[in-house]
Specification:
Layout lengths: L10 H30 L6 H5 E4 L4 E4 L4 H6 L15 H24 L1
Helix pairs in contact: 1-4
């Protein structure tokens, strides 16, 4: 005797739940990313770090000073105020923390689905 099982999957409903979970998790993950980027950010008087923020509900991390782009890519970061200071500080943060960011995202999204 053969038995069968029929499973109906509502793809649209699943995608809506995933989208809602991502929208709820994204700002929290972005704040973690910003904090980790600040670990490697150049620091002299604090203006650059203080300008760091997230935009578009956590879709972007932004450092908003007239010189942010220039010092992100060029020069020699002084390490007297921040011994971790690097050029391209967010790239360093990503390399060091990407796995943690992924796990945090998964945890936050799992809590929302």
């Amino acid at each position: 005797m053969s038995s069968s099982v029929k499973i109906d999957i509502n793809k649209a409903q699943i995608l809506r739940k995933v989208d809602r979970a991502w929208e709820a998790a994204r700002p929290l993950v972005a704040e973690t990313i910003l904090a980790d980027c600040n670990t490697y950010c150049r620091f002299d008087e604090g203006t650059l770090v203080d300008s760091g923020h997230t935009e578009d509900g956590g879709a972007r991390v932004v450092y908003d000073t007239p010189y942010a782009k220039k010092v992100y890519y060029t020069g020699t970061p002084r390490t007297h105020m921040n011994p971790n200071a690097k050029l391209m500080w967010c790239d360093h943060a990503k390399k060091a923390h990407k796995r943690e960011w992924t796990l945090r995202t998964q945890k936050l999204m799992g809590a929302k689905i």
